[in-house]
Amino acid sequence: MNGDSPARSGRRSTIQTADVVELGLGAGLTSVGVTGADVFEPALSVLPRRKAAGMAGTMQFTYRNPERSTDATRRLPEARALVVGAWAYPSGDEPAPDRPAARVARYARSDHYRRLERALEVVAERLGDHGYRAQVLADTNHLVDRNVAWRAGIGWYGKNTNLLLPGQGSWFVLGSVLTDAPLEPTGPPETDGCGRCTKCLDDCPTGAIVAPGVVDATRCIAWLVQAGEPIPHRLRPAVGDRLYGCDDCQEVCPPNQVSRPDEVEITDRSPNGPQWLDVAWFLTASDDDILARHGRWYIADRDLDVIRRTALVVLGNIARPDDGEPAIALLRRYLSHTNPMLRGHALWAVRRLGLDLHLEVDVVDDETTAIEQAAEVEARFPSDAWHHGDGVLPRARP
Ligand code: B12
Ligand code: SF4
Ligand code: SF4
To answer: pLDDT value at position 6?
Structure first.
């Protein structure tokens, strides 16, 4: 997976924070910072609280073992510092095609994580040349990436929980190099760049940002489309045309409205793949074909029916009368699919499109009905305690 540059000899030569920052910027990172390898306290206290409040749903990632994901020395006991970098991805949009098409969030249109890792590997290799151990960690279960970036002072926690870089916004992926080099930290943390703005809270289509800095993942479309369970009924219309990821809370964010000075350069350095994908293709392609094109996406248990389930919801949300027979043929096929979750989502799409008369929905069996009934469960509303934020970061009150 990620590179580990072990000390190449017993001898170590000096390397300064300024050197690694310059190296990272030269490798294409937009911002580079350094923080110590001590425990990431905010996340250590927040992860278990969010989990206990039911806001993590079935998510694992950093939630699986907060003691590990907030303590880099679990990975490298002699670690002294983390060099964190932000890799920019294009923020542009493509016009929607004239056929039922599903939307992919910007960060997932191309393998920006791989490009981020390559840039971080340049830093790791140089640390290795100086005789230090260095490991690249980007988007793993082992480290809370945003907390590292925040403590290194490269950006602030937006109320949508994304990490924003001053003057650059949040269209970045984040990763770090863990090292035993005694690098001086950058910083201090940025306390607040949001001010009185609340646009992301107001405009999230599912109300998933339940308080400033608090996302309830069980309502967040970015998680719903990845999770292996049926998508709750009341949230299916809000999924809209999104097949993978959701960008709404970043699209409405004022700091992201300002065009980045180097957007053209970013697009050259890290070009994006298509924004729009053919829904019918996902409902007819084999597992192997889907994996060949989109295998780098997180798909719960690598079960491609999870993607097909979301494609059925998208079809139910966006099909138009003039899509006619092809959409009906696809839904007919899925009404008798062997997977009851897919039968249930097809049934929902049929009803949403008012196609009940064209299709024999009375064939619906008990198993499908049970799954759909379970998906009727109302999304929870967390206690008022969350409406005051986590209170673990020093910042101005909204
Ligand atoms: C789990 C996860 C998710 C989950 C949960 C997200 C969440 N907000 O918790 C889901 C699947 C929903 C998700 C969605 C997305 N994710 Co995600 N995700 C992760 C992952 C794997 C772990 C994050 C984590 O530990 N969350 C746990 C909670 C506790 O952390 P937190 O929300 O940051 O909590 C902090 C704040 O609450 C803050 N805080 C505390 N009190 C207060 C008070 C106030 C007022 C404020 C403002 C903040 C604040 O301190 C807390 C502790 O650090 C990381 C990768 C990694 N290994 O770190 C990527 C990561 C966070 N995701 C990323 C991305 C790109 C996204 C999406 C934009 C993708 C998309 N377009 O669909 C969306 C954004 C949704 C959103 N608004 O967060 C990037 C973020 C880049 C950035 N610029 O911030 C990361 C870092 C991946 C990467 N390596 O680049 N993600
Ligand atoms: S990613 Fe979408 S659903 Fe999740 S918090 Fe942001 S706007 Fe809401
Ligand atoms: S939309 Fe406003 S409140 Fe939300 S993250 Fe952006 S600046 Fe902050």
So the answer is: 58
Where are the domains positioned within the chain?
4-91+110-195, 199-374
Identify the nearest ligand to the CA of 63 by its number. 1
Residue pLDDT, tens place only, 240-256: 999 999 999 999 999 99
Which atom of ligand 3 is closest in space to residue 252's alpha carbon? 1
Site to probe by mutation for ligand 1, drawn from 161, 196, 226 as the one with most ligand atoms within 8 Å of Cβ, is 161
- Ligand 1 atom 29, closest CA: 47
Contacts of 286-291 spanning 24+ positions with Cβ under 8 A: none
Q: How far is the CA of 212 from the centre of ligand 3 (A)?
A: 9
**Residues 296 and 308 sit within 8 Å (Cβ to Cβ):** no
Query: 4, 19, 38, 139: which one is catalytic?
Result: 139
Residues with beta carbon inside 6 Å of ligand 3? 158-160, 194, 197-200, 252-255
Angle between helices 340-352 and 305-318 (to 10 degrees): 10
Q: Which helix (H) or strand (E) holds 243?
A: strand 242-244
Q: Is 139 a catalytic residue?
A: yes
Q: How far apart are CA 147 and CA 46, in angstroms?
A: 11
pLDDT tens sequence across 335-363: 989 999 999 999 999 889 888 766 666 55
Which is the closest atom of ligand 3 to the Cα of 203? 1
- Check: CB of residue 33 under 8 Å from CB of residue 110: no
CB under 8 Å to 202, separation ≥6 — which residues? none
Query: Rounded to the nearest whole angstrom, what is the distance from the C-alpha of residue 61 to the centroid of ligand 2?
Result: 18
User: Which ligand sits closest to the CA of 137?
Assistant: 1
Q: What angle do CA 21, 115, 186 make, to 5 degrees?
A: 20
Range 311-320 average pLDDT: 93
Q: Which atom of ligand 2 is least distant from the CA of 245?
A: 1
Q: What residues pair up with 276 in beta bridges, in sequence order?
A: 103
Of the CATH numbers 3.30.70, 3.40.109, 3.30.450, 3.40.1550, which one belongs to the domain with range 4-91+110-195? 3.40.109
